Amino acid sequence: MSLRATISRKFLLQMALSREGRNSVLSHYHFFLKSQYWDKNRLREYQLSKLKIIIEHAYNSTAYYRELFDRNGIQPKAIQDFDDLQKIPILTRDVIFANQNNLISQAIDKSRIQTVMTGGTTGQQATICRDIESANLKMGSAYRFESFMGRKPSDKMAIFWPAHIDFMHKRSFKEMIKSRYILGDVAFYTGNYDVELFQKYFAELKDINPEFIKAFPSALNIFTDFLVDKHLRPMAIKGILTSGEVLNDIQRNRFENFYQCPVYNLYSSREAGNSASECAMHSGLHIAMETTIVEFAEGMSRVPEGKIGYILITDLTNFAMPLIRYRIDDSGAGLAESCTCGRNLDLMSPVVGRLTDDFYSPDGRRHSGNTLGYYITTNQDFPIGQIQIIQETLLDFKVRITDKPTPNKRILDFIKAQMHEIIGNEINIDIEIVKELPREKSGKLRFVKCNYKPGN
After folding, report:
1. Residue 423 exposure: Cα atoms within 13 Å on the Cβ side
2. Does domain 359-450 have CATH number 3.30.300.30?
3. φ, ψ dihedrals at 91, nearest 5°
4. What is the CATH number of domain 3-39+130-348?
5. Which of 6, 260, 276, 327 could form a disulfide with 285 if both were Cys (CB 3.0 to 4.6 A apart)?
6. How many C-alpha atoms does 330 have within 13 Å on its Cβ side?
7. Contacts with 20 (C-beta within 8 Å, 6 or more apart), sequence order
8. Is the Cα dihedral 67, 73, 78, 82 positive or negative?
9. Which residues pair with 113 in a beta bridge?
């Protein structure tokens, strides 16, 4: 723990957050550090009380939920327990597309609403609104999950990210100072293997000397390839937190052996923030029960604990755009076991959805598949439904895109232009418009599929 981090945490961080209307973040963080040790009954009572509040609010302040409840004969006060939640129809991204304005609460001051784009790893975008206090709660929850690996707010953390959308906004000098010296976060774009860029990153990392890493597994894997190829010694890291896509055992073992530190698996999404994370026991992911209800379902109903189902998220904090039983196109399972760490938060298995392959550019370089997602599916001016990109050969790509919303010539030209910019002008792109995308045998969607094998 550095003197800079201690001073920032005690004085500068709260000042910086308060200036942005986020003065409650640290109080939420300290609350979560205590509430995670409540007994299970107290946690469930707290969670149920929050559920009743968000359902009542959704019915009274949004046109979508009022019409949905009335059409299905559901009275908000009839939702008295968690089983009653299954009466509410599932929310999908298609529904959000069709009901964008009707999902936004009329009771929230529009100046207190933030907009975020989703899409990337699941191949479909949606616009989600969130009130500032919800964002504060999510940030407090993020700090709580980072504490599982020993990080405190403002401790130095390097972030390896393939999400180009997060690097498109040119930050001001003031923003960079706040990020590096107050928040302690320094982000590096590692969506593709770039020796010249990575050499600059490595020099910067030696100067920063981060204690922790947060990363997409594929993005950190690509940077690790560079360190291995160049025979460079890794930074002295205390813990690695992976997010954004499935962490497989090969990646976990590689990171733990190469960086000589434990790896923690975080389940997170742009829609609902940080929903669950591993602790040092690695016996499952602790669900953020204070802010989120996570269900595992087939159809409208939950599956038994231990059985894999698709994930439904109910955000207990977002009063700007209530997300109730939101299907997020990931799969996982609830676990009946308790963790020996002493926290009484519900446990879930690691997520088994979010399938995406790496792809290759004409010069033979390997790129993270998530890079394509964040280039193509996060631009609000080009609304795109579900999309799948298949690399058949080094130069031949097939794109499948669903017909809702209707992909006009402007959108199709945008997709081609983005792919040519990212991959290279030499590639051939064949676009096919379909009713729905084919799923893997497991029932999951693969956003990027690479049939090309180097050397063939």
Report:
1. 29
2. yes
3. -95, 130
4. 3.40.50.12780
5. 276
6. 27
7. none
8. negative
9. 131
What is the spatial distance between Cα 226 and Cα 198, in angstroms, rounded to a whole number? 7
Report d(CA 284, CA 289) in Å as an integer.
14
Q: What average pLDDT does the structure give for the chain?
A: 89
- CATH 3.40.50.12780 domain residues, the chain: 3-39+130-348
Indicate if the pLDDT at residue 26 is higher than 60.
yes
Q: Please report the pLDDT score of residue 119 as a whole number.
A: 52
Band of pLDDT at residue 391, cut at 50, 70 and 90: very high
With residue 177 as reference, give the H or E element that holds it.
helix 173-177
Nearby residues of 344 by Cβ (< 8 Å), 6 or more positions away: 36, 37, 38, 39, 40, 43, 338
Q: Give per-residue pLDDT as tens, 286-329.
A: 999 999 999 999 888 899 999 988 899 999 999 999 999 999 87
Domain with CATH 3.30.300.30 in the chain: 359-450
| Nearest Cα residue to 296 out of 288, 286, 306 | 306
- Dihedral of CA 150/155/156/160: which sign? positive
Q: What pTM did the predictor assign?
A: 0.81
In this prediction, residues 88-108 reach a mean pLDDT of 92
For the stretch 217-244, pLDDT in tens is: 888 988 998 999 999 999 899 999 999 8
Residues 6+ apart with CB under 8 A from 411: 382, 383, 384
Distance CA 147, CA 277 (A): 10
